């Protein structure tokens, strides 16, 4: 993941309204040390912005926007933002409701009359991932996924991929993240506005707010200053990310932006002054309200709203969303009580913007955090991996399958891509694709009891339930 900055210590800026110049400079230095450490261990490439209230933002850039041509990331570099797109899709839906063109509680059959089960699913179900619609980007459901996403597709063709599949649960019954729902929201926006999704957002959200570096990346178009996405596959070895036709993500993840534009959006969204030209104050509040619990057992205070997550961190309310799309990773976070906005955009798929954003908030709130540490893989006899092979129950609806593939230990969570686990010891492993470490627990007779997965400060134990996968 990457970082970028243009404001310097000599500028009159502050992370908190009551911070002295001396303590602020210390904190700014701490931020630079933290971000430089990430860049030095090759776990970040991109741009970071920290803004608070009316103070000038702190912005840092790291790494290369294009490695083949040695083009550096700057504050003007644009990045694909993945699922951070969803809050803009949700805002468009609320705007259309304010215009009287749709209703959140109406069945989607009102706007998409040919969609099967459309009379059971409401617009709000789609917004909150409670519709039960299968995930159209799930390789377990669609084995041809990796090849298919490289090909151009119309919006109607995307919907055809999943519309005939049975619902996974009764709409409104539970939360299960589904990009498919936001593809349907894209279709609804186009149906009721008589505009394309890209044109509607440009005309009704981005242009009025002055977000001149944000838009939908139309296939076969060249976007000025758009970074190339990469994956880190070894020690300092970067490859261009797998091709993705940008007709595929739609309103689930198809936008590009800059940290400055995202800060403009976030600070406008949390400004109490009404602006009926985009959204009323009531609609902005509705956009960020907590609606449905995401993980009642592990994170009871984490709720999904309309394209955003609402929870508590550092004893502060937090509104945020992360994004990941081929070669890119992103995080947009806001702490409303302190008017603190943090945007992290990276053109390194294996970066962890969510952790970076959280640690930068910790620095701002003067709470403990850990500097990133490089993991070093050791040589380990692959025959030792066999005892770990099997299925582990991480959450009630999520399992982790451990396999040995071509002499490497791999992990794959339900509905997600597999990734390689590199050994740090006989029982401790790390993943380069994300901020993940795994420790296998052994009983006295050396049989495997389970694994402990650590990511973004969270720790979950998964008992081994079977030796197969």
| Rg (C-alpha, Å) | 22 Å
Side by side, the strands of the main sheet go 1-3-2-16-15-14-13-12-11
CATH class of the largest domain: Alpha Beta
Largest sheet: 9 strands, antiparallel
Strand content: 25-35%
Question: Main attributes?
Answer:
2 domains; alpha+beta; 23% helix; disordered N terminus; 9-stranded antiparallel β-sheet; Lipocalin; Beta-lactam/transpept-like; Beta-lactamase; Serine hydrolase; 469 residues; 8-stranded antiparallel β-barrel
Task: Please provide a written account of the structure.
Helix 1 (21-40) packs antiparallel against helix 10 and helix 2 (86-98) packs across helix 9. The protein is an alpha+beta fold and 469 residues long. The protein is built from 10 helices and 24 strands. It has helices at residues 21-40, 86-98, 123-127, 145-148, 155-162, 179-193, 197-209, 259-269, 281-288, 353-364, and strands at residues 4-5, 46-52, 58-62, 64-66, 71-72, 79-80, 215-216, 230-234, 237-240, 255-257, 292-295, 299-304, 309-313, 316-325, 328-335, 340-346, 390-395, 398-405, 408-413, 419-423, 428-431, 436-442, 448-455, 458-466. It is globular and about 65 Å long. It starts with a strand and ends with a strand.
């Amino acid at each position: 993941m990457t970082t970028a900055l243009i404001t310097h210590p000599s500028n009159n800026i502050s992370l908190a309204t009551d911070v002295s110049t001396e303590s602020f400079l210390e904190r700014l230095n701490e931020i630079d040390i933290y971000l430089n450490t990430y860049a030095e261990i090759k776990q970040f490439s991109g741009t970071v912005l920290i803004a608070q209230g009316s103070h000038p933002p702190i912005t840092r850039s790291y790494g290369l926007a294009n490695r083949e041509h040695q083009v550096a990331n700057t504050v003007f570099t644009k990045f694909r933002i993945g699922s951070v797109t969803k809050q803009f899709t949700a805002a468009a839906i609320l705007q259309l409701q304010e215009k009287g063109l749709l209703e959140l509680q109406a069945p989607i059959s009102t706007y998409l009359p040919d969609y099967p089960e459309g009379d059971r699913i409401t617009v709000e179900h789609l917004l909150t991932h409670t519709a039960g619609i299968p995930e159209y980007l799930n390789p377990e459901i669609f084995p041809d996924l990796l090849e298919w996403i490289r090909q151009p597709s119309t919006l109607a063709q995307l919907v055809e991929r999943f519309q005939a599949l049975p619902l996974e649960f009764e709409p409104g019954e539970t939360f299960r993240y589904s990009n498919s729902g936001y593809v349907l929201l894209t279709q609804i926006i186009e149906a009721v506005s008589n505009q394309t999704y890209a044109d509607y957002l440009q005309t009704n959200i981005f242009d009025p707010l002055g977000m001149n570096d944000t838009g939908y990346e139309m296939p076969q178009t060249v976007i000025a200053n758009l970074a190339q996405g990469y994956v880190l596959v070894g020690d300092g070895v970067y490859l261009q990310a797998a091709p993705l036709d940008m007709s595929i993500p739609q309103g689930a993840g198809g936008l590009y932006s800059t940290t400055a534009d995202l800060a403009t959006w976030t600070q406008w969204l949390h400004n109490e002054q009404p602006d009926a030209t985009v959204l009323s104050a009531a609609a902005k509040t509705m956009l960020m309200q907590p609606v449905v619990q995401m993980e009642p057992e592990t994170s009871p205070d984490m709720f999904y709203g309309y394209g955003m997550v609402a929870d508590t961190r550092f004893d502060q309310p937090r509104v945020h969303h992360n994004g990941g799309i081929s070669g890119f990773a992103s995080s947009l976070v806001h702490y409303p009580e302190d008017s603190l906005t943090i945007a992290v955009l990276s053109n390194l798929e294996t970066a962890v913007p969510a952790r970076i954003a959280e640690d930068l908030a910790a620095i701002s709130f003067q709470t403990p955090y850990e500097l990133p540490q490089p993991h070093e893989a050791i040589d380990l006899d692959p025959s030792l991996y066999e005892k770990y092979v099997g299925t582990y129950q991480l959450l009630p609806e999520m399992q982790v399958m451990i396999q040995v593939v071509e002499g490497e230990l791999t992990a794959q969570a339900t509905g997600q891509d597999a990734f390689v686990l590199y050994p740090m010891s006989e029982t401790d492993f790390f993943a380069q694709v994300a901020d993940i470490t795994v420790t296998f627990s052994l009983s006295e007779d050396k049989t495997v009891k389970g694994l402990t997965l650590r990511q973004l400060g969270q720790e979950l134990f998964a008992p081994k339930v079977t030796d197969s996968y």
